[in-house]
């Protein structure tokens, strides 16, 4: 298969950026059979990032595999406000780190920080270990982190599952068919994961620590400070209550 034939095949399959996608496949694979296989895989609807095994996110290249949540560029909006809020952070955690997009980016942007990521999805964690740059832990939200971090987290970030269960069908069908429900389903109002994280936040955050996340504008609960806005997305901060 030539490059031009790949572009035609991808375009026929409905890929809007067929040339860019063929370029990514050509850059990733040298073998003609692997290139043709990747074009077929992508044409069947698998997200490009899972086909090529990587996604560019902020300053890092994130390792990916079939079935693993694909980092969304919209979550890059979290990085700048998080770094601006805690430029001297010593301990940073990414709750629900997936393949490591936010954790690896923050490790790169805050080189003196000790960065930890935690997730329950072992397939995503295997990618996170390949992405590298931070400590990877298996477990549920805060409880998956080493207990030595309790009360010492200067900056916690999360791009949580926050799609209301009833709206899951709004997700683009390529992603919907190839990502676990666990990575997107936020329960009836989309806020179950946020409530679970907030329940323990103050016991893990350091005295002046902050938790930063991205939500849809209409989901922002009381008590959150809005620090950035991008269309319908808002970056919000919860600061540890003074004790
Ligand atoms: C929207 S994805 C974000 C992944 C990653 N932070 C990113 O931006 O690419 C949400 C992540 O939360 C993880 N997750 C869901 N429930 C969890 C739990 N109870 N504890 C830890 N992680 C969880 C999912 O496996 C998924 O990787």
Automatic annotation (TrEMBL):
One MF annotation (Gene Ontology) recorded for this entry: methyltransferase activity
Coiled-coil regions listed in the entry: none
Matches recorded under InterPro entries: N5-glutamine_MTase (IPR050320), SAM-dependent_MTases_sf (IPR029063), Small_mtfrase_dom (IPR007848)
Transmembrane domains' residue ranges: none
Top-rank lineage group of the source organism: Bacteria
GO biological processes: methylation
Domain Methyltransferase small: 76-131
Entry keyword set: Methyltransferase, Transferase
PANTHER family, sorted: HEMK METHYLTRANSFERASE, MTRF1L RELEASE FACTOR GLUTAMINE METHYLTRANSFERASE
Annotated protein name in UniProt: Methyltransferase
Organism: Nocardioides agariphilus
